Amino acid sequence: MQQIFNFIVRFKTGLTFLLLMFVALFLTVEAHSYHTSKWVSSTNFISASIFEFKSGITDYIGLYSENEKLTLENTRLRNKLLNLEENAIFDQDSLILKDSTFISFPVKLISNSYLKTDNYLLLNKGEKDGMYENMGIISSQGIVGIVEETTANYARVISILNSNISINAKLKKSNHFGSLTWNAKQPNFVELVDVPRSAVIKVGDSVVTGGNSLIFPENLPIGEISDFQLNENQGYYDISIKLFNDMTSLKNLYAIQFNRREEASFLLENKQADE
Amino acid sequence: MSNYGLHILRFVILLLLQVLILNNIKLYGFVNPYIYPLFIILLPLNLNQIQALFLAFTMGLSLDFFENTGGIHAASCLVIAYIRPLVLRFSFGINYDYQTLKFYNEGFKQRFNYLAIMIFAHHLVMFSLEAFSFQHAMLVLKNTLYSGLFSLFLMLLIIQLIRKEK
After folding, report:
1. What's B105's domain CATH number?
2. Any stretches that span the bilayer, and where are they (chain B) (predicted)?
């Protein structure tokens, strides 16, 4: 017993180091796996309010270009609407508006990151405003990420620039499916993998979200093909995609709410319970 | 000890400086300076090693909370806090052993050695844990070198600025 105490006293520095290092490495490993409950997150009150305070000051700097972006988007949507209204008029209580599967509402980015291998964003809306886990986040030009954690006032988004994420996507022309991943090299390029060799691919083709998820609606823009090669061993294409979004300058985003998620997740859970 | 206030103030200022300003620099798209290790570098030289480890852990973890990085900053801070006595002895030699070391009185060369070793050790551990795979080994080395040089430059400037007049 005495010897154990002596040992502990003699190596107390080393033991403290090992103990704290163990905690730090545990948190690191946890942060590198998708969908585990995270202890360390910027959604906590202190860091989120500091980021919000900073965002309140720096927002003014980008106001001009943000306005420009929003005006462009308004124009695009207005043009669509003009053509639509020629054919149909929607009343406030029309079934199309009331019973839509997906609706979106605006959110604001208060902290962005795009240099690491695993990037996260912080939004200024939380559970109070109807945010929930696994909500899709898009900008006016394309998809941005998926909500991973929410607190009362803030939400943390796992960015598409994160090595843990994999999103169902397809080629717009031929409807061939693949999964979207990131290789951590450049913040404006992502990879589309697992597209079968039977697909016809050209540089410049558009890639959009596939309908195989409850997160994003089908046919949201992602990017265009900038380069591709066939993996001869596996018979799948490795496609490099240039994002329509500039992930380095995001501000005004939209959260997509899936109105039938309870029904859908009920079915999914039943299926898992059966297996 | 009246120095407590100074160190707490230094902790808060370095943390906010790092999170609110330096993390937005991103020179050439990937060079990002980290100056918060200065807190550990400038801890009192006669500080108990266990206290130093806990302080370093707290500093690193605070940054992790802002950056959503799990424990990578905590781990890299722990490493440099642990090797600090060795690096001090290596850089300042006999002065450190006799406890007569005054950080600001030492020559530029010794201070430079001390800072450089601490910074590159910190950056190497941090970027390796961040990449978390051997696949990105070149990326880790590249980031360590460029960000390390930038951090070193900034820290030397800051140390000159806050240097106490004799």
Report:
1. 1.10.1760
2. 6-22, 34-59, 71-92, 112-132, 144-162
Which residues, 6+ apart, have CB-to-CB distance to B109 below 8 Å?
A: none
CA distance A50 to B66: 9
Residues of B within 8 A of A187 (CB-CB) are 29
CA-nearest of A39, A115, A90, A192 to B131 is A115
DSSP label at A151? -
In the DSSP assignment, the letter for residue A43 is T
The total number of residues shown for chain B amounts to 166
| Residuewise pLDDT in 10s, chain A (275 residues) | 788 888 888 888 889 999 999 999 988 888 877 666 567 788 888 888 888 888 888 888 888 888 888 888 888 888 887 777 666 666 666 666 666 778 888 999 998 888 888 889 999 999 998 898 888 999 988 899 999 889 889 999 999 998 888 898 989 888 888 899 988 888 889 999 888 888 888 888 999 998 777 888 888 889 999 988 887 777 788 899 999 988 888 888 999 888 887 787 788 787 777 76
Is A80 in the B-facing interface, judged by CB distances under 8 Å?
no
Q: How many CB contacts within 8 angstroms connect chain A with chain B?
A: 104
Test A26 with B69 for CB contact under 8 angstroms.
no
Q: How many domains does chain B have?
A: 1
Best of B28, B68, B126 to mutate (most A CBs within 10 Å, chain A):
B68
- B-chain CB neighbours of A20 within 8 Å are 53-54, 57, 74, 78
- Among B53, B22, B49, B64, which Cα is nearest to B151's? B22
In Å, how far is B162's CA from the nearest CA of chain A? 25
Q: Angle, to 10 degrees, between the axis of helix A12-31 and the axis of helix B72-92?
A: 140
Give me the domain span that covers residue B109.
Answer: 3-162
Domains of chain A: 46-89+104-162+249-259 (2.40.10.340), 167-243 (2.40.10.350)
